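Anyone else keep sequences and structure tokens together like this?

Example one:
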Amino acid sequence: MTTSARPARRLPWSLLLVPAASGIPAGLLWWLLAPGGLNLMTRDPALASGTVPLVWLPRDLTLAGILVLAGCLLAVFLADGKRRDPQAAVLTGLAGALAGSVLAWGTGILAARLFGPAVDASANPGIAFSLRAWPVLLLWPAATAVSVFVLELVGAAGRKPQPEAAERAGGNSPVK
């Protein structure tokens, strides 16, 4: 009696660790670009301080844009179609994306505390470099999921159906 050994399914740990670790440079980029941080995007001195409430929305939108871009890039790697277990790869990538979002937020806040000027946020917590719209942290996994879905749809539309696959699926076959 021969038993076929099933190959053990390994979790693609790199799809968890790489997106999570890339949250660190994403957070630094957020602090460098965002109004209220180093403000390299606008370089407007009026927007350099968090005391102006007009800074709060662009600061959150800067992180949102970085996270959406990161989600689209991660989706390209997840939708390559060469994985043994694509569902596990996508779920692991989504977990890594969520961890990367949290690390990006934490890194940006830490960079502001370490490298930014001292801020008295006793009047309003939004004065300090912070994130006011918490759902922004869900944009990286959401952008990844939507982009994987779209890439898989586009890829499936571009592929021709295999004759063997049609037979296995119970399709009409000229040879019986």
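And example two:
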Amino acid sequence: MTRGPKPKPNAVRRNVHEHATELEAATQPGREMPRGLGVTTAGAKRFWRTWSTAPQTQSWTETDWAELEITVRLVDEFFKGDLKLASEIRMRTAKWGGTVEDRARLRMKIEDESEETPEKAASDVSVSDMDEELFKLLNGS
């Protein structure tokens, strides 16, 4: 036997935030990385591809894309060995909702895609290239 009154059958959540954002889980068409950025590492190219096709980009404006261009340059330098940039990169991706915790703080929800599997974007970077770069980075070469 439970204590207290029986809950109403049509209970409504009252703590829904008026500015909460719900995004479709579908992969976005993305943008091509501008050639003028001068990005050379496979990790930075993968970072661009991941973020340019992320569900968060549905509502991005030109200033957001400019911020991604700046961040991908930082990621390129990070993969070249400048590990001091890790915290700056993390702060920037948090503002876009990079992790589950970041999305919760931003009141951003991505719809569940359990029924559909998004098609993988064609990769111009092989996994072995990325592994080799990471190996060099971690070994201080």
